[in-house]
Amino acid sequence: MxxxxxxxxAYLTLSGRCRLGTFDxxxxxxxxxxxxxxxxxxxxxxxTTLLRIIAxxxxxxxxxxxxxxxxxxEPRAGRRLAPEQRSVGFVFQDGALFPHLTVAENVAxxxxxxxxxxxxxxxxxxxxxxxVGLAGRADARPGELSGGQAQRVALARALTFGPDVxxxxxxxSALDPQVRDEMRTVLAEHLASHAGVRLLVTHDPxxxxxxxxxxxxxxxxRVAREGAADTVRPTxxxxxxxxxxx
Amino acid sequence: MAGDAANRPIRRHPDRRPGALVAVxxxxxxxxxxxxxxxxxxxxxxxxxFTQLGRPGVRTALWLSLVCSVLAxxxxxxxxxxxxxxxxxxxxxxxxxxxxxxxxPMVLPPVVGGLALLTVFGRRGLIGQWLYAWFDITIPYTxxxxxxxxxxxxxxxxxxxxxxxxxxxxxxxxxxARTLGASRATTFRRxxxxxxxxxxxAGAVLCWARALGEFGATITFAGDSPRTDTMxxxxxxxxxxxxxxxxxxxLALIVVSLAVLIGLRDRWLGxxx
Lengths: 246, 273
What we know:
The complex is a heterodimer.
Chain A: E1 12-20, E2 23-31, E3 36-40, H1 47-55, E4 62-67, E5 70-74, E6 79-80, E7 88-91, H2 103-113, H3 118-131, H4 147-159, E8 165-169, H5 177-192, E9 197-201, H6 205-211, E10 214-219, E11 222-228
Parallel strand pairs in A: 3-9, 3-10, 7-8, 8-9
Antiparallel strand pairs in A: 1-2, 1-4, 4-5, 5-6, 10-11
Helix pairs in contact in A: 2-3, 2-4, 3-4, 4-5
Chain B: H1 2-12, H2 20-43, H3 49-54, H4 56-89, H5 95-107, H6 110-121, H7 128-135, H8 143-168, H9 171-179, H10 184-213, H11 216-221, H12 231-241, H13 243-272
């Protein structure tokens, strides 16, 4: 396959802190390539902020973020890669598909932004749409898709260019129960075939157990527990059944 | 698209007609806007139409009006978009003051604006004295002055509309573009501009319309000469000794602006709907 793929030696390590207003996040975590870290915790625990730090959408105040042998963020050394310089695929909470582009153009966006020619980018995008079971919706607008379809497109869009790190922010929370099970299967399949580092934020312990190799419980901006998925019970934190995170 | 979905519930809504008071007030508003145009058409000496439009000064004025208003709009977009972006997206000390300054020309009487421009760009003005001393450039009473005067008065309309549009964009789309590998410039071009396109277009049209009608600042700063007599000036000058002719010219200006607006709607604004 000629598609760009993730490096299988992309070990992610993050040790740092970040202050946003009165909120304070300080943690250390590491994720080896080929594994999924499920981040769980109550609303406002800092789960989404953690993903945004890794993507470069929020800056660290102090600490180091490294992926493989590259430093992505190290404020003291004055080093910081812009979001577009990081090899990251971000699946946003309810897709955040560009409403003015077709589904295929959405999926091709990452390749186009990396200088891939239109014809080739479109072909790869269509292949990916086939892989997530949406080959027939390439020319649809995001507004015409159901929640589950939009989430599949968002997944395809984040994976086309073979990012070293995949970040998923509550990819299942907005879906109906039945669609949710389906999407969980799609996610499991695509995460398993992705060679890089994966982080999945969820407030649902069942999703964390099903999709994560390891589980990290975040509470009030600190790591409360961490361990292999079969040893850490992700239940019991406050508000474990409530909605999204900000 | 989302627009259609948003429209649907309104059509099914039980309130099919506005209440009596709303209808009366709305009709009065419409009358206030439309009656003067009717009056203009009623009193205009139509027989003088072709002699008036044939006057060389009139054709020059019409052309000059179009050129100056388009240049002023272009200047307002080139300078106003970065200003709108800065106001919408960055938090810095004195932002409120900057915003107030940016819309100041909207509340300033245009004559005052023209005087103010003279104090800056006049031969002995703040900047004008150096332009004159170093480059032998004089701005007042030139076509450049007419364009500057129009831009001064009209730019706030673009800045205000563009800023509101930029504020309303869901930032997650821009975040998504960045994580997908698009630089800030590419994100702006391929995501932000298409999303705020209707606001930018509306702002540009408002700005152009204001520039086209600009009179006070132009006559003060650019004066009365064949290089600066735009339609509003020409109409005012004609009015001094030929009120009927002024009516005809007014109608001509109205027709031209309506033609441009309708043409834009179909060609440019229409594509964005």
